[in-house]
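Model it.
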Amino acid sequence: MKLNELPKILAWSKDTKRRGKGVGSGNGKTAGRGHKGGKARAGYSPAPCCCGVPFYRHLPVRGFSNGKFRTKYAIVNLQDLIALQLDTIDKYCMQRSGLIRDGSTPVKVLGGFELDRQITVIADKFSESAAAAIERAGGKAVALLACVQKE
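Modeled.
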């Protein structure tokens, strides 16, 4: 078969719009490009980020996250508190000893360790195993957040 013997398929030979060919063509004068300005000139294509609207507003917003409202705790292990060799341990002691960075961050004490002496620990929150281990040894686990919520 030769190229000139191929049958003509109408979908392949669709006529293009003849722009700028006079008023009678329906696309004369400005050729559907409006009046003047960069968008009326040949070769102009704006970057997606520079179209008059910030780029992030072109993108859809999907879903919702509670992440920014979450309470972030400074985590302290019960084993580290034992090493301090104090009877009463609060946020200030933890910060001075380097267990936590900032005194304004709420502190949560985690367990997984058995105590050999009684201590009083004052923190914002305790895991169940930490509170149980402190009380088994005869100490006290004072949760500050629980006190605030009850009032």
